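Long-time lurker, first post. I've been practising inverse folding by hand and with some scripts of my own, and I keep getting stuck on stretches where the structure tokens seem ambiguous. Below is the full token string for one chain I'm working on. Before anyone asks, I'm not after the true native sequence, just a reasonable design that respects the backbone. If someone could post their per-position residues I'd love to compare against what I wrote down in my notebook.
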């Protein structure tokens, strides 16, 4: 008899109604992957986004919100937003907003605002950590995206496997367990594995898919992708320690093993600096999410 895990993975492979990344988001992600950051690419990105009126409107709301503290002045169109915020920042906004729209209206155990606020915070933490650690300069461009999507499997399980996933959230025993630990105990799989499979369908870089798959168990990640995976693990732990844990966590997730801190070349001063940045950004992250949903 197939295990619960195998049933979930088999059904996941057969699902035809899984959310698919919008064409606009795919295009801007491809532009980011190209590594181009020229005046010409800025114009191209602006033109791509402008074709999606709903996405354009949300980007302008966010660009003019307290999330950016008004430091770019009043922005009236997407081209100006791209010029003032920069292509990479606009691509981050576009990816975040587009992803939130895919799962809008999900019903189940997960509070969407809580979920995305945590995800944005982890993405910000990873961007900060990646800029500090010398060993993670190579995956720097993927740090924000991996942080944003690290828990996307939670939404897949919550929407498409509601009955089975509901049991993970039942009070049961009151032992202090993380969501990941209860998923493994009850389902035999976890949101990392499920999220990694979704991102492979979206054709995101393998580095991001592997980092998401193994972010709670970095030692299992293929060596060539391990730095980004460890970065997700540390960023997730940092946000949980600051009071912004994954939905459903009853205890602080385990930090990565001591090797991660060494591999990433992070020291206490780096962590303290990024922690302060994340704390300052938590309220702004909530504003970002409210404007995006």
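-- Answer (accepted) --
I ran through it position by position. Result:
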């Amino acid at each position: 008899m197939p295990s619960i895990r195998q049933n979930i993975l088999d059904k996941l492979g057969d699902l035809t109604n899984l959310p698919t990344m919008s064409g606009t988001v795919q295009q801007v992600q491809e532009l980011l992957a190209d590594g181009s950051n020229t005046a010409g690419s800025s114009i191209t990105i602006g033109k791509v986004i402008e074709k999606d009126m709903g996405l354009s409107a949300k980007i302008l709301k966010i660009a003019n919100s307290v999330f950016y503290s008004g430091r770019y002045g009043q922005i009236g169109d997407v081209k100006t937003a791209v010029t003032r915020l920069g292509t990479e920042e606009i691509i981050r906004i576009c990816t975040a907003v587009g992803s939130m729209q895919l799962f809008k209206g999900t019903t189940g155990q997960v509070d969407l605002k809580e979920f995305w606020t945590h995800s944005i915070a982890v993405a910000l933490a990873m961007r900060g950590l990646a800029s500090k650690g010398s060993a993670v300069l190579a995956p720097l461009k993927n740090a924000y995206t991996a942080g944003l999507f690290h828990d996307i499997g939670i939404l897949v399980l919550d929407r498409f496997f509601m009955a089975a996933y509901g049991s993970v959230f039942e009070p049961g025993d009151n032992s202090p367990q993380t969501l990941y630990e209860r998923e493994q105990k009850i389902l035999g799989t976890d949101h990392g594995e499920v999220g990694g499979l979704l991102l492979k369908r979206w054709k995101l870089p393998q580095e991001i898919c592997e980092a998401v798959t193994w972010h709670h168990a970095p030692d299992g990640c293929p060596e060539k992708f391990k730095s980004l995976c460890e970065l997700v693990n540390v960023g997730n732990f940092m946000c949980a320690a600051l009071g912004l844990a994954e939905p459903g966590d009853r205890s602080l997730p385990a930090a990565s093993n001591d090797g991660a801190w060494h591999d990433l070349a992070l020291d206490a001063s780096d962590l303290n600096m990024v922690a302060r940045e994340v704390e300052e950004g938590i309220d702004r992250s909530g504003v970002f999410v409210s404007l995006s949903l």
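A couple of notes from the structure itself: Residues 107-293 form a domain with the Hypothetical protein af1432 fold (CATH 1.10.3210.10). Residues 111 and 138 are 34 Å apart (CA to CA). Happy to go over any region you disagree with.
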